[in-house]
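Sanity check

After download, print the first record. It should look like this:
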Amino acid sequence: MNVIRKLSEQARVENVKTVGTMRIYSIILLLFLGIQLNAQKSNPRSHIQLMSGETIEGKELIFLAPSNTEPVFQLDGVMYPSKDVEFFKNNHGYFANLGRIEGFEAPSFAMCIDRGRTNLYQRIDMEVYGGPQLKPGVNGEGLSDGTTFQFYNVADEPLRKVGYGNMKVDLADNLGATAHLKDYRKFRVLQFGLIGGGAGVLASSLAVQAGQPIQFNPMMLLGVLLSGSSLLLESPKNDALWLAADEYNRDRGYVAVGGGY
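Expected structure tokens:
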């Protein structure tokens, strides 16, 4: 009888342990599911920010531009005219509407390729990025290469066009960025000078031959070389812009990252 009683007590103890373990596992599972659900709510896959500043979140965002109708964004089945959307995020990245800069007659958009205190945008084709799947050309035509940017903004402000005039104002509180912008302006002035000088040499050479059969001569070659050499400054000019943005983003602990918000 004592043996039976001991076995019965051991069975009860094991049962209590098993029930307790199952409860712990259940609690952990519920906590994990709660964290996952909260993460899904706080980090939706897609969202749009209207021109009014209102942000609307959702799961799937698609850009639709059927012929003879106004382009729209479809967020979880709800339609929004594209001209009313300023920023948006889908599963391909973070984008901005260029309507404030270029007008809303023809829809145009840019993709965020670098993010920080100042965000850098490259013009893209929404036919490639607007659907659930990317639709590039046969050899990847239409995809952003991330090497150049034509637009930028600071924080959540509207986009502005890249240029010395705009950026010297927006990045003025960073001396390093300002120095790189001055380099950008220097290269740009040199480019215009070379193009103008080459065009002048060509024009004078053609003027000398006025009324005669045009013959290519060394002076015309010099003009072509002068104008063509301006292309050699394109890379350092673009590098100066990148360096200005990187310097600005590095200030106050910000570091630029790619891909969108």
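If your output differs, re-run the checksum step. Summary of this record's structure: Residues 195 and 227 are 4 Å apart (CA to CA).
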